[in-house]
Amino acid sequence: MTKRERQVVGLIAEGFSNKEIAQKLHLSTYTVKSHVHNILEKLSLSTRVQVANYAHISESYKNAIDTTSLISE
Questions:
Q1: Residue 59 confidence (pLDDT)
Q2: Can you tell me the distance from the alpha carbon of 16 to that of 18, in angstroms, rounded to the nearest whole number?
């Protein structure tokens, strides 16, 4: 996934609409829709809610790994 797509995933997870994401990232709404489409394809998902859930789960998982590695050191 590209850096821009990861940014869009994060903003979807925060509840932003395509229009709001476009304004925040200084992109056209069409470009955001394209990024969302690519994200859905790459993650084999079908809805924005699934993308948001993925973002929250992967962030929780990442934090759990970081915490575990600190404990084992």
A1: 76
A2: 7
